[in-house]
Amino acid sequence: MAFEYDYTIQFRDTDAAGVVYFASIISLCHVAYEASLIESDIDLKSFVSNPEFAVPITHVAADFLRPLYCGDRVSISLTPAEIDRGKFEIIYQILTLDAAATERQNLAATVTTKHVVIDPQTRKRQDLPRSLGEWLVRWR
Question: What is the CATH number of the domain that holds 60?
Fold first, then answer.
């Protein structure tokens, strides 16, 4: 089951043309990623400062299907998938919501991020830690 995160597009997310700035869509997805980790009882402070592993993003791709404007309500759906024992990807779908936020409307964008687990000292790849494995299983 995918993780879903509702968000209202803020002024800070838009560019001079009044639409979501291309780099902001990645930030919105990252907020949903963080929320999914928290929902899975992963402490973010420990996660980002863990001496045993780090999880850098190695690839990002985004497709914009329709503009998003300040004040638009969206649902960010994320689905992680293991690529191999030390690498995973997250596929995000950003859907507009109706005014009552009860129905998803139109697919506005898709984003994919790829992540690799490394040892923070040696920078060499390693297997997924148990907490991330459980997170993957929960939201796939």
Answer: 3.10.129.10
